[in-house]
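Entry 0007
Protein: IS5 family transposase
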Amino acid sequence: MKPRISLFAEQEREDRRAKLGDPLVGLAEHVDFEALAGSIDAAAPRPSRAKGGRPPYPTVLMIKILVLQQLYNLADDALEYQLLDRRSFLRFLDLTESSSIPDAKTIWLFRDRLAQAGVGNQVFEQVQQQLLSQGYLARCGQIVDASLVQAPIQRNKREEAETVKEGTMPLGWKPHKRAQKDVDAKWTKKHGKNHFGYKLHASVDKRCKLIRKIAITHAAVADTTVFEELLDLSNTSRDVYADRGYPSIEREARLKQAGWRVHIQRRGHATKGISETQKRRNRAIAIPRARVEHVFGALAQMGGKLVRCLGIVRTTFVLQLKAASYNLKRLVFLKERGLAPF
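Output (structure tokens):
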């Protein structure tokens, strides 16, 4: 069919986009980005202009850009192009009439300044406050799990690799080479496959599938190591679910003594399997526990299975921002689907 020429083509496309639904419209409506920017400026004040120079972009604009980057899994250069080209992004940022668009370097510098200042936790907690203020409390129990996050693999010589394992850098590495080496990521093995990078540990509430607490470690850290610190005491239920990677007689005894209702799957051993009763119990736990896999699946769609940055400091900030952005996206979904907070 021959394309139809119309003087109102732009408006007609706009109407079609409105019918399909723009998730960024929901973000702009339901999220208080000014409060988010305020928490960032309080934790990491903007650079002084005493020496002159171009004034920095507003923090509220830059944090919106970082949220877009996490939601759509864009590298800095790709993000700059999309900011210049994508009308929905410009509307979300209130830049439709502006020719001043942050470039890739500006975005990198802003993100790195926040990472070095360690404000990722403040961002995550500010999002938690907004969830609570809109009535989305942690309810019906929590599910604890972890997911591997791939980092750029380092090609080091054997001697260099041994030095890195000891927690130091080889003396022969010059500053520019050190800046391109990740000495914090570690190798681990899962299901017979080797993985290099980090691990995102999370506690997710069972009702709304919102991430309530997180911890970031290198990949070799055992999941059980951070189990207790992930427990969300604000959840209205004392039920806690986890897979067979977390069982421990001592842990379960401590949790039960503290008032928790423990639902951790049982694991068999090489010489002895689990009983039929334990198998039935595992299947019963698997149904609610599967909800955490939905969360990690959504994070994977947002690029949460890999990081482009180097080092635990930058990785921690990016994954905290990724989890916060997921929660914002989930908040919009809950609001627009009419799922009542209580």
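Curator remark: Residues 138-336 form one domain. The two ends are 51 Å apart (CA to CA).
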